[in-house]
What does this fold into?
Amino acid sequence: MDILKVVVTFMGSFLGAGFISGAEVSEFFSGRSLWTTLLSGAIVSAGFVVFSVSERTDAKTCERIKPAVKIFSFLSLTMSFAVAAETGKELFGSPLSPFIAAAAAIVAFDERFLKSAAFFSVCCALTAAAMAASRPETAVGGGGIGLNVVGYALMSSIVPSIAVKNEIKKMSANKIILSAVLICAAFSATAILFVFAVGENGRLIRDTGSDTPERIISLIAVTAASLTSAGAQLKTAAEKPVTKIAAAASALAASAIGIENILTWLYPVMSVIGASVLAVAGVGAIKKILVKRRRN
It folds into this structure.
């Protein structure tokens, strides 16, 4: 049961509005081969393993990288709010970000809220994608993996891994490995499903003129995904209630620069921070393991 909780919470924390709406899917997965998607899932699960091993064996390194992780999470939160604003304008005619910021602050206060929201978000996302995937048009191709896809997969593992760190501490090594395998499978299967769901159009929601069941579920899925991923990012970026509110307000204000400027200026910074955090955590964990083996 704890493995299932880890996988669902991980996926719920990862699936944001950018992915569910189809923007990230069309950017990183559409037109690429099946092996590219599977490799992306393997990279995400590898990031999860790195954080899990570091969390269990090297507390000092975890404390050392905490400031960088918080900065990364804050920048991710800013991007989530920017995406929510654009998605809200496109689907509802008004920015979704203020609502998401307020709701995320509530979800981030209690881990139980986050886990429940993650479960609901995953269910809505998979339902919406399954309904949309029944359309005939697809965007599957044979393109290979690029550095942008590798970077995306690595960064996608950071906040979700931290969201389940309390469960990781209680799990055995075998359970962590099994969780990693299931995360790889869940990530890859979800990406493949959404490739079919968004099709050549690149968007999950295409019919904006009628309130069909598919459109309503898709709208709920996008909103729930925005809320859950933002809640996980906020929970990682700030610890105390006052700092959570301040972080949410600051990220909301920063998101006003727009998603294009964020992708141009902040995304490269996030890539560097994310890669550095994973590298430091991985090296620290390996050193700790080697030292223990030498003593034994």
About this structure: The chain has one domain: 2-283. The mean pLDDT is 86.
